[in-house]
Design brief:
3-stranded antiparallel β-sheet, alpha+beta
């Protein structure tokens, strides 16, 4: 699978941030920034989102890694991480569910 994009809403410093990965043009993505600007937070929550997916794929009752409350932007009730993946044809299709 390839990670095409990831979007963070109301997570730590990020109210609405979308990162798109373009492997054809740039096979490596660098995250650069000053100290305390959220670089580690991006990696941490990307990891959270990507561990949630296989946990749910294996067993629908498994939550994967749960996001701590302190990582949700203050004054917000919830946060959201949206992940867009590309599944290679040799893997086949993933079963879809409305639940």
């Amino acid at each position: 699978m390839q990670l095409e994009s990831i979007q963070f809403k109301h997570i730590a410093l990020f109210h609405d941030l979308k990162i798109q990965f373009q492997y054809e043009k740039q096979p490596i993505t660098l995250i650069l920034g000053e100290q305390a600007t959220g670089k580690s937070m991006l990696l941490k929550h990307t990891y959270h989102a990507l561990t949630w997916f296989p946990a749910r794929f294996k067993d629908l009752r498994s939550p994967g890694i749960v996001m701590p409350d302190q990582d949700i932007t203050q004054s917000r009730l919830q946060s959201k991480i949206e992940v867009t993946l590309q599944v290679p044809a040799e893997i086949g299709s993933l079963p879809e569910s409305t639940s």
